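Here is the promised in-class demo. Please do not try to memorize the tokens; focus on the logic of going from shape to residues.
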């Protein structure tokens, strides 16, 4: 079951709210002879999370089907990059599981002991059964917090987004059944308004379709930080007047700090691992953007919303990348 984006956390007597965790959504099938982990897109994640499959096999009876979020904690905060490294770890995955174990934060029960499907039961009853089932489970298998108290929701949004790394709140009806593939839940993402430097565009300079954005690190290097959603017709026309091709470099320098096409690894999109062709522009235009809080290792993991150009700001007014963010990129190639 999926969640539709909303602009505000909904309120109502029949609604409950849960943190929107910064991890990978996964369904766990406890089969008679083992455990099968499946991503939201249907991908087999089993071999990447031996620590989770071991915990589910030890604590959960055969026939049970669970729904939740795979998370890796680092210093008390969700670390999405550690999840991604599981996929490319190869033989080192067992070492990674020992050194930086994953957790499975659970929020729904789709089939009970013996394989009894309970999708048609209301959420309140599915939740009660989930809590009983995991009462004695190890800490790696945790039931997600849930509340109807809007004051607690406000605390999550104000404090947990930074301290814990949640992305927002998911709201659900207590009486709702589980409908696979339907957006019957609501999700509110915590967002912020900030600035970034336009370093490239998809499409063309005269008709930009989306922006490739960056920020300077402390050494004065422009680092790629993310990509925007498609621009509106009016935004394209206004930006085209401000964009220009990179200036001719001085001797021994490069015309632009990013490779073209943009390496697939920079996008962080494992479902579309292809280099991205784009048009390099002179990095002198400051963009005001609306972004969610999933900013990790110097990049926005989700696309940002372009709001407007800020000709009143210099590129040196844009916030710098600091600390460990600078070590994430490496040199192209």
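The designed amino acids, position by position:
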């Amino acid at each position: 079951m999926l969640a539709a984006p909303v602009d505000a956390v909904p309120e109502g007597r029949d609604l409950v709210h849960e943190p929107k965790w910064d991890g990978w959504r996964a369904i766990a099938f406890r089969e008679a002879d083992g455990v099968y982990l499946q991503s939201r897109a249907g991908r087999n994640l089993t071999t990447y999370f031996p620590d989770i499959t071991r915990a589910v096999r030890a604590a959960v009876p055969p026939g049970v089907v669970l729904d939740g979020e795979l998370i890796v904690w680092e210093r008390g905060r969700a670390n999405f990059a550690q999840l991604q490294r599981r996929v490319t770890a190869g033989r080192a995955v067992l070492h990674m599981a020992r050194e930086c174990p994953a957790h499975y934060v659970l929020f729904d029960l789709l089939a009970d002991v013996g394989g009894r499907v309970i999708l048609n039961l209301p959420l309140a009853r599915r939740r009660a059964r989930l809590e009983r089932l995991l009462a004695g489970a190890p800490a790696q298998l945790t039931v997600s917090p849930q509340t109807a108290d809007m004051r607690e929701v406000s605390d999550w949004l104000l404090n947990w987004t930074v301290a814990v790394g949640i992305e927002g709140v998911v709201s659900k009806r207590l009486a709702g059944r589980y409908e696979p593939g339907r957006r019957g839940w609501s999700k509110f993402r915590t967002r912020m308004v900030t600035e970034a430097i336009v370093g490239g565009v998809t499409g063309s300079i005269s008709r930009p379709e989306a922006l490739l954005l960056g920020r300077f690190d402390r050494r004065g290097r422009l680092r790629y930080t993310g990509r925007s959603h498609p621009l509106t017709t009016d935004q394209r026309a206004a930006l085209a007047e401000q964009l220009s091709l990179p200036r001719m470099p001085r001797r021994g320098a490069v015309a632009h700090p990013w490779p073209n096409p943009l390496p697939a690894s920079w996008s962080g999109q494992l479902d579309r691992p292809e280099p991205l062709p784009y048009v390099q522009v002179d990095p002198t235009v400051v963009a005001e953007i609306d972004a969610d809080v999933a900013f990790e290792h110097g990049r926005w993991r989700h696309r940002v919303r372009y709001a407007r150009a800020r000709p009143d700001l210099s590129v040196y007014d844009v916030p710098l990348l600091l600390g460990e963010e600078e070590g994430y990129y490496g040199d192209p190639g």
